[in-house]
Each structure stands twice: as structure tokens, then as C-alpha cells.
Write a structure and sequence with these properties.
CATH architecture of chain A: 4-Layer Sandwich
InterPro entries (chains A, B): AP_endonuc_1, AP_endonuclease_F1_BS, Endo/exonu/phosph_ase_sf, Endo/exonuclease/phosphatase, ExoIII-like
CATH class of chain A: Alpha Beta
CATH superfamily of chain A: Endonuclease/exonuclease/phosphatase
Order of helices and strands of chain A: EHEHEEEEEHEHHEHEEE
Radius of gyration of chain A: 17 Å
Number of strands of chain A: 12
Keywords (chains A, B): Hydrolase, Magnesium, Manganese, Metal-binding
Strand content of chain A: 25-35%
Cofactor (chains A, B): Mg(2+); Mn(2+)
Helix content of chain A: 10-25%
Enzyme class (chains A, B): hydrolase
Oligomer: homodimer
EC number (chains A, B): 3.1.11.2
Number of helices of chain A: 6
CATH topology of chain A: Deoxyribonuclease I, Chain A
Distance between the termini of chain A: 7 Å
Chain lengths: 256, 256
DNA sequence: GTATCGAAAG
DNA sequence: CTTTCGATAC
């Protein structure tokens, strides 16, 4: 079973690339982020034509997440549903083939200590609370998303430059660690302890050609799924060519 | 010798279509209108790659005209050069293979009697004056352009609807007639006296699928070129498909 | 650099 | 409907 995550940076602007990628990569499940469109504007027809069901939590202009799957996702939950007044469409979960799948788009955080940064840390706390409330660590859970946090020094292209910058501050890395402490493992790092691969490269300054990126798109697994994990990688090819997203898809393979 | 005219409605938005059309239609000369970009933003490289020189008179956002040719255009004149203070880039002329070629983008005129309408009539008068000043009726001159005037009832899809509307008012048709009175012949009508073909269809209201258009893109010839005129047609195919211009190219063939 | 938006123009 | 712009966000 192949599960992937991809921040498409506008599902309408990237519709053809999305369909092409689905057809060639053939994931069983794809977590999408930054749809940048409402449910009404989501390209359901093109996705269905490619062989996928879609559970969508859209929003105009900003955010928007979805779970695409070859079998129909059930028990869809849109938003963290914790009573907090929050209009951002950053979270969706659904059950696919007996696995609880999450597609998450963590806040970027803008500048350190800005309201957006505070919101980011709080959002991570709320997501941990979601897990504590709804799940046990031995549930079958896969959380894919753009987490907007590089977990470790190896996950940024230049530690000296990134130190103290949003996406890599100690408080953000700690927030991610608190989330993972629920019982989640980073699939890529689990299989490749010493490999430096990135999933996002700024559009500007030729960052992709220079391979100056960061790894902020992750797939997290609960413990019972770890023995089934056989592969995890970044599809760097998808960042190439005309009008790519600034993120590359990340995928994993579960045996059985 | 094949000479064409095409209002591309943004040369940057239409760059790939332009290159494809040049490669398949292989005109010796192409008059372009509504470049909607400055000279600095004109895609000289792509045009050169397709085998064409380009004489450009660009303008930001609006208007902009060019003459593309397989041999280098010489003696380029940008604007009507009549001392009138006019920032609109609507006129360029150059010599190609011994023929004086004009690419013109006539004002639209907006509403009847609006300042834009007055400007349109005046622009036609100035263009006639340009010819009187610079040319004799037996010079070899081809004027291609978006003239924003349908000359005759046959040139609009519904005379009753168009009567009195801009593009078809008597005063506009008279202004065009005054211009032609210099000694110009409408190549398409010359060869096809009774054929109704359109060159522009509004993007809205499914006007193209319904073939509700008007013929406002014309190629005018001076008398000495008439005996050489062997063909003239509208390339309706170019209006089809994804992201077309709202105008189709019009082309003619001169023998020898 | 690449999206979004709404306004203005055709 | 399609394009432009300038503003905003990442």
C-alpha cells in the first residue's frame, strides 16, 4: 500500500500535474495540502477520471486539504473539531482500508513571535490533543502533511543560515517533538537515518537548481505500522519542469 | 509570399500558440496586434527560434503592435509620427522584401460618441493623412491589422443587432471607407465578394461555438499588388482549443 | 517566483 | 471569458 503527501500549491493551477502524477505514481492514498480553493471548485471530475475518490476540506484562497484514495474514504472529519473558532482549513482525516489517514497543513508561522507563530505552536498543541482524545498509540494511523517544520539539522541545507528562522526554531521543533511523542515515527528518517533529502525549495533565487531546500513534508506512522514500512522517498522529479509546486511529493510503502 | 495579421491578445499569454502557428502556417510576414507588453518583455528569443525577425512597438498593459518577418524588416517607423501627443502603441510600419508593411491596431471606440469613439474616428483620419504624406497609391503597401470596424452588413453575424453598435456604426464604416479611398483594397472581400467569414468572436456567451462573430481584421493592399493576390482566408482553427486569442489570424498569398 | 484576489477593459 | 494590474501571502 502506497501512501503519499503533497503540498500542490493550488490544486486548480496544478490540476494536470496532479492527474499525471496520480497516473504515474499510482499511490493508494494521497494527502494534499494548499488546495487554495473551495469544495465547489475542487476538480472532483478530473480526480475521479484518474481513478480516485476525494474527501475534501477546502477554503477560498488559502489552505485547503484533501485525502485522495482508490477506495472510498469513510468517517471523514474536517478540522480539529475541538471547539476552537478557527476558519483555517488545515486538517482532514478519514479511514482508508482500515487505516486512519490524516492530511495536515501546518501554519507557516511567518516571523518568530508573530501572531502567526503563536498560532502555529498552538495548532500543534491542539493536534496533539486531537490524537490524545481520538486515538490510542497502537491505532493504525498515518499522518501526511506539510508540517512547516524541519525536524533536525540534517533537514535544512544550511544550519547556520536556518538557525532561529521559522520552520527551524527550537520551539517549533519542540512542538513537533511533542506531537510525535504521542507515538508517531517519521517514516523517511526511520528508513534513512543519515540521508539528507528535501521536500520544499523556495521558488526564488534558484533554490531548487542549487538544491537548497528543507524537509518539511512528512509522513508519520503509529507503532503498529512500522513493521510494515518498506520504503519512503521524495519524488524530486515532480519539482522539475514547467509550473511545479514548490513542494515535492513524499511517499511510503507499507507491505501486506 | 504569405502575409498575415493576428490580434494575439497578449503575446506573452499566447507565446506558445504564436510559435506553433508560425511553424505551421509559415507566413513570410505576420502583423501582430495587442501585444500587451513593453518591448523589453517581448519574446524575441522564442520568435527568433521560430525563424523570424521582429520589429516591435510595445506598450505596457494595452495595445502594442509588431511586424514579424523571415527577412529583417528595415526602415521601421513606430507610431503615426504626426506630432500628435498620443501614447497608444497602435501603429508600426517597416519594409520587408520591397513591400511596405503596416501593422495597425485601431481603437475599439467603446461607446458611440464617447471620447474613445471620437479618438477612433480621429485616428482613422490621421492614418489617412499618414498615407497621403508618406505614400503614393501605386506604392507597394500591405496594411494588416485589427481595424475594429466591420465594413459591410455581410461582415457581422446579425445586422439588426449590430446596427448602430460600435464596430459597425455608419460613421466608423465611413472612416474606414475614407482610409481605403487612398487606394486600398480589402484582400478578403476582393477574392470572396459574397462569403461571410468572421475574424473575431467575443469570449463570452459561447459566441465562437455559435459562430456569432464579426470580420474586423483585414489586410489592405495597394493597386499594384492586386494582380499578385491569389488567396486570402481566415484561419478559424486557431480560435479553437485551450486559451485562444479572441481573434483568428487572417492571411493572404501574393504570387511571384 | 508563483499563487490568490478584485477591478478594469475588451 | 480572458487579460492586465497591484496587493498580499508563502
Amino acid at each position: 500500500m502506497r501512501i503519499a503527501t503533497w503540498n500542490v500549491n493550488s490544486v486548480r493551477a496544478r490540476q494536470q500535474r496532479l492527474v499525471n502524477w496520480l497516473k504515474s505514481a499510482q499511490p493508494d492514498v494521497l494527502c494534499l495540502q494548499e488546495l487554495k480553493c473551495t469544495d465547489a471548485d475542487f476538480p472532483f471530475d478530473a480526480v475521479k477520471e484518474a481513478g480516485y475518490f476525494a474527501a475534501v476540506h477546502g477554503q477560498k484562497t488559502y489552505n485547503g486539504v484533501a485525502i485522495l484514495a482508490k477506495t472510498e474514504p469513510t468517517d471523514v472529519i474536517r478540522g480539529l473539531s475541538d471547539g476552537v473558532d478557527d476558519t483555517h482549513a488545515r486538517f482532514i482525516s478519514a479511514t482508508v482500508n482500515g487505516i486512519r489517514v490524516v492530511s495536515a497543513y501546518a501554519p507557516n508561522g511567518q516571523q518568530v513571535d508573530s501572531p502567526a507563530y503563536v498560532y502555529k505552536l498552538e495548532w500543534y498543541r491542539r493536534l496533539r490533543n486531537y490524537l490524545d482524545t481520538r486515538h490510542k498509540p497502537d491505532d493504525l494511523v498515518v499522518m501526511g502533511g506539510d508540517w512547516n517544520i524541519a525536524p533536525e539539522p540534517i533537514d535544512v541545507y544550511d544550519v547556520a543560515q536556518w538557525e532561529g528562522q521559522t520552520l527551524f526554531t527550537l520551539r517549533e521543533r519542540d512542538a513537533l517533538q511533542q506531537l510525535r511523542a504521542f507515538g508517531l515515527t517519521d517514516a523517511f528518517r526511520q528508513l534513512h537515518p543519515d540521508v539528507q533529502k528535501f521536500s520544499w525549495w523556495d521558488y526564488r533565487m534558484l533554490m531548487f537548481p542549487k538544491n537548497k531546500g528543507v524537509r518539511i513534508d512528512h509522513l508519520f506512522l503509529t507503532a503498529p505500522l512500522l513493521p510494515r514500512l518498506t520504503a519512503c522517498d521524495v519524488d524530486r522529479e515532480e519539482r522539475k519542469g514547467q509550473q511545479p509546486s514548490d513542494h515535492a511529493p513524499v511517499w511510503l510503502e507499507l507491505k501486506d
